[in-house]
Amino acid sequence: MNIYFSKIFLCWLLTLEALGCKADKNAFDCSNPTPGITCEEGSAKERAKKALNDGDSPQAISLLEAEIAANPEAYDIYPLLSSAYAAEAGFDIFEVVNVLGSGADNSSVFDLISSFLPDPDVLTAEEYAQSLNFMGQAKNLLDSMPEANRTDTGTYDYASSAGYQLSLYTSAYATMYLNQFVAIDPADPSSIDLDRLSEMTVEDAEIILSTLADAAANGDPDSPIASVISETIGTIDSQEGASAKEKLSEYLKANH
Amino acid sequence: MNFRKFASIFYFLAIVFYSEISYAEKTNNSVYEDPFDIASGGAALTRATQSGILFQNPAQLPYGGKFLRWLGLRTTLILGKESVDLAQSMVKSGSSSTESNPSAFIDRVLNNPIHAGSATAISFLTNNGGIGLFYRVEPDIVAERYTKTGLPGIALTSEAYAGGLASLAFRTPFRWLSLGVTGKYLLVSEKYLTVDLSDMSSIDNLAKNNGQEESLAALKTGIGFDAGMLLFFQGPWVDIRIAAKVDDFGDTKFSGGGTPESFKQTLHGGAALTFHNDNDAIHLEVNERDILQAYGEPTFKRTYLGAKILLRGYLGLGAGLYQGFPSYGAEIDLIIMRLTATYYRRELSNGPGLNSRGIYQLSLTSGFDF
User: Fold this and answer.
1) pLDDT in the model for residue B3
2) For residue B23, is pLDDT > 50?
3) Model pLDDT, residue B20
4) Which residues contact B311 (CB under 8 A, 6 or more apart)?
5) Quick one: B18-369 is in which CATH superfamily?
6) B17 or B318, higher pLDDT
7) Is A111 near chain B, with CB under 8 Å?
8) Which end of chain A, N or C, is less surrounded by CB atoms within 10 Å?
């Protein structure tokens, strides 16, 4: 009789197997539907968060863009979509751990933020332009939020993160923009490549400096990054030169 | 790199507390589930194990055969599968690899939540009633590269429950129908704290609010009532059971303010088939909890499907679908003690597989089956 019941139990296990009961697979999962069972998905925000943590930023962007298109005032989603854009731009804050471990001397805000941004010397011009575009989308999306929704007053639990990310991504955009014109001189590793630097126009320099100023203005004035940015802008302003390009060039030559 | 720049980097990376603590929502799960019932898919409204009867459905009590049913203590150790995997991988790789490859270490920590806890239940059951005391503590910590607000952070979920229960049950003049009620005194703490990258103003907010926030260890107390019914049609080889239960009748309200303010009234239903002889049985059951969706959870989180095979009272095997995830386990009676091992997966979000935890439970029971 024990064998009889064991056979019934074995049939039960085989039934579970037929229902798709693989170890740790959920029978209601839409990504791998089980016959006869109506699958279920979580909210777009939950799915996007998981996609981001799994490294699938395009999927996260697709989900969140659709969600915002359907509900433009769902401002709690904006910071997460913005971080997805930044991830697609190649922004990886955990890279700073490797930089600290390498002992590299980050003497300016540009060096600091560059440590977790894509390297223009590694990417093609098109790839870097695309990354820059995504970083621009990251900052512009947060900038489009009402100020009350990105100011930490205790009303919205996402507001502090939105404000912090806006300051961070604005700085990152300025740095990425600048890095198009900054490279190490192959003949002298202690200097920057002046030929590359000369490609920067006055308009480019003004965009970089105005974006940096926005980064300082948007963030919490008491935050460390805001103080570092303000200090950097002050140092650039104090350089010799008639135009923004000249001042910025002098600053870069002095700090590389 | 000068000190100021280093300090800037440090603060930039500083993980600070939000000035606001939010609270985890109660789910349809009972505050305590017997490990063997969990192994059997968590479906136990018609047939639960020992102390589990008081929590699942007191109307089961009159169908136990003898007047005195059970006196004993069950202690359970709870370990997350990902925590065990993390510990194993760190032991294998050794400390030197952490120093030489910090980013790999961070990736490993980010992908493996730490989930652990313990539970104990002591109970005395008869055919018409029972009393029990219990506690369950089950914290969960996970570091995420992206939290719901898009920044890296750590999420701490803390569930702590304790209390006492007293149940009364009786068969009605219809021998196939029994009714039962349970009165319970609960101590509850459910907390969800997000530790996130943010700016320095949050530190100031926390310092200003210091002492006004409730500590993570604060427990709320409340008195509640459950009521259950069981239809039991017994045959020579096959039994049919149908159960219904109301948890937290009229809502169980907690004192102390804040959240959780209360446990909502929920309605559960279950049906089962049992194939048996005099000594052995195989029990197949399906439960749907919170039928009226008081907590607004999706269907998969409220559905439990399972089977128990019980051989001569010495060996029990369980398998099923716990919230859609496979669960399994075994229980062996060594006369002076019982050992139970269970594995299941629990979903913390509202989407299958979006934020789940594999959980091992190892349980030791000492007691008397009369």
Assistant:
1) 40
2) no
3) 32
4) A2, A5, B279, B280, B317
5) monomeric porin ompg (2.40.160.40)
6) B318
7) no
8) N
For residues A116 and A131, what is the distance between their CA atoms, to the nearest angstrom?
13
- Alpha carbons B263 and B260: distance in angstroms, whole number: 7
Instruction: Tell me how far apart the terminal alpha carbons of chain B are, to the nearest angstrom.
Output: 74
Query: Any idea what the Cα angle at residue A70 is, between residues A66 and A76, rounded to 5°?
Result: 80
Q: How many contacts, defined by CB atoms under 8 Å, are there between A and B?
A: 204
Give the DSSP H/E element, type plus range, for residue B316. strand B315-322
Nearest CA in chain B to A224: B8
Nearest to A134 by CA among A209, A58, A189: A58
Complex prediction ipTM: 0.82
Among the partner residues B106, B204, B351, nearest to A42 by beta-carbon distance: B351
Q: Are the C-beta atoms of residues B207 and B16 closer than 8 Å to each other? A: no
Stretch (H or E) spanning B37: helix B35-39
- Residues of chain A with confidence (pLDDT) below 70: 1-23, 95-109, 184-192, 219-226, 256
pLDDT score of B277 more than 90: no
Q: State the pairing for strand pair B325-333/B220-234.
A: unpaired
Q: Taking the complete model, does pTM exceed 0.90, yes or no? A: no
Query: Residue B198: what pLDDT?
Result: 55
Main-chain phi, psi angles of A61, to 5 degrees: -65, -45
Note the helical H segments in chain A: 2-18, 44-53, 57-70, 78-88, 95-102, 109-114, 125-143, 159-179, 194-198, 202-218, 224-237, 244-254
Query: Domain limits of chain A?
Result: 8-41, 43-74, 75-254
**Is the confidence at residue B17, as pLDDT, over 50?**
no
